[in-house]
Every structure is written in structure tokens, then in C-alpha cells.
Design goal:
single chain; about 140 residues; mainly beta; Metal Binding Protein, Guanine Nucleotide Exchange Factor, Chain A; six-stranded antiparallel β-sheet; three-stranded antiparallel β-sheet; peptide-methionine (R)-S-oxide reductase; EC 1.8.4.12; Met_Sox_Rdtase_MsrB; Met_Sox_Rdtase_MsrB_dom
Length: about 140
Amino acid sequence: MEPVVGATPRVVKSEREWREELGPVEYAVLRQAGTEPPWSGEYVETKATGVYECRACGAELFRSSTKFDSHCGWPSFFSPMAGDRVILREDRKHGMLRTEVLCASCHSHLGHVFEGEGYDTPTDQRYCINSISLRLVEDE
């Protein structure tokens, strides 16, 4: 994964350390900007309330109250939590222009954000996030 220009992660580990801590599929998505197959992730249809954390570093990223059914095959949120929880960067891979979403704390790949798709949400944005990039901490 290329470094994010002008930003220093708060959680810094060597790629060897990441490989040791993450499973092979987690590593491929979080550290190599892969994508899990649609409809395969554990949080696609989850309705539980709580906070979604970065699976790599534990940073709080999204609240369940911003999750919505987009029927795209991945968990979708209309906004990250307040503050600088995520970093957005231009992604021109695969012959298209997209906006990649990374964890601001460890710079792990989360997914992509799309705008103007006509969803009835407060932001008209869809943060399309890989389930394997997240861990849900349910409210008690």
C-alpha cells in the first residue's frame, strides 16, 4: 500500500508485524487494499447497535446508526464518526476513478466512498466498507 501523503499514522508496525497479527485474508484487504467478495462479509446485513472499529488497530470508525441497506454486498455507512477517523485518497486502480477510505489511525484499507447515488441518507454518501476491515463492538 502506498503511503498517505502528509499524514503519519498513530499506529506504526512493520509489514512483518501486520502479517503476524492479521490472518491472510485480513492482511490482503487491510494492508494490500484488497476487496472481499460481495455478500461474504459478516456485517453486510447486521442490524446490531454499537461501534465499528478498525480490525487492524481498534480505532473507532463508524456508528451503527449511520449504517444503511444499500444492497451492494458490503456494509454501507453514510458517514464516519466525527473527527478525523478516516482518510480519503484518490484511487485510479482498475481503470476507474474512486475514493479510497483508510483508517486514519493505522492507514489500513477499509473500502471506498461514493457520492450522488441517490440513497435517502443525510449525506448522499455511501461508505462501502469491507466487513473484514471492521469489528463490531455491540452496545450493552
